[in-house]
Design brief:
Length: 223
């Protein structure tokens, strides 16, 4: 039987997850999450053209090989925002960006240049991207809540286990750090976050680059 104490703990867990993911979403500049610019193009293509994007070998691309459900929902959430940039525009690249982002150093970690147009109050494409990110947080919140509900079904007389399972999902690095700072929500937490795939898609676990420990906090270098 669930007590008032367990309800309070669950509420605290969910609020903490949302605040943590929201903080990550603001700390990580737009497009710096892996493949985020291509995920955004997919959403913008659906919002503007109302058709599925076509996968191409050359030129600006979207993540067109992914199933469209998440992107269609994100297009509904963000499509009302007036955006001046064309669907497949490319952000200004940082000429001093160093690809070896997993190494500690004083080189540039941001792949793109960021200006005052990305500062609060958000508008245009910046607002659209943040709306997509915050939508991903809501999906992540649903996953954490569903984890708890499944735990209650499996262990009806042990609510602490259900809370523990929900906390494990909420605060696993590969979930909490990608639900907020990227347009798409995380893959299951037992996979490392490389492409930050949305739900309802299949994705393979990524292999760490040579010399990178599996526990290395690669998300920190993208902030």
């Amino acid at each position: 039987m669930i007590t008032q104490r367990h309800r309070c703990v669950l509420a605290l867990l969910l609020v903490t997850f949302v605040l943590l993911a929201f903080a990550y979403s603001l700390a990580n500049p737009i497009y710096e999450a892996t493949d985020e610019v291509r995920h955004v193009r997919y959403v913008r293509h659906l919002a503007v053209h109302q058709t599925l994007p076509v996968q191409v070998a050359e030129g600006p691309r979207a993540q067109s090989h992914h199933p469209p459900l998440y992107y269609a929902l994100a297009a509904l959430v963000s499509g009302w925002v007036p955006v001046a940039e064309e669907v497949y525009y490319s952000p200004a690249a940082n000429p001093f960006w160093a690809y070896r982002y997993w190494e500690v150093g004083h080189d540039n970690k941001n792949q793109y240049l960021h200006g005052r147009d990305e500062m609060f109050p958000f508008r245009g494409i910046t607002l659209a991207v943040y709306l997509m990110r915050w939508f991903s947080i809501l999906l992540g919140l649903g996953v954490v809540t569903l984890t708890y509900r499944v735990g209650r079904v499996v262990w009806p007389h042990r609510p602490a286990l259900a809370l523990g399972g929900a906390a494990l999902v909420a605060f696993t690095r590969s979930f909490s750090t990608s639900a907020g700072p990227s347009v798409t929500t995380s893959r299951p937490p037992w996979h490392r976050p490389r492409c930050c795939s949305p739900p309802f898609t299949s994705c393979q676990p990524a292999i760490a680059p040579a010399g990178q420990p599996l526990w290395a906090p690669s998300w920190a270098s993208r902030c």
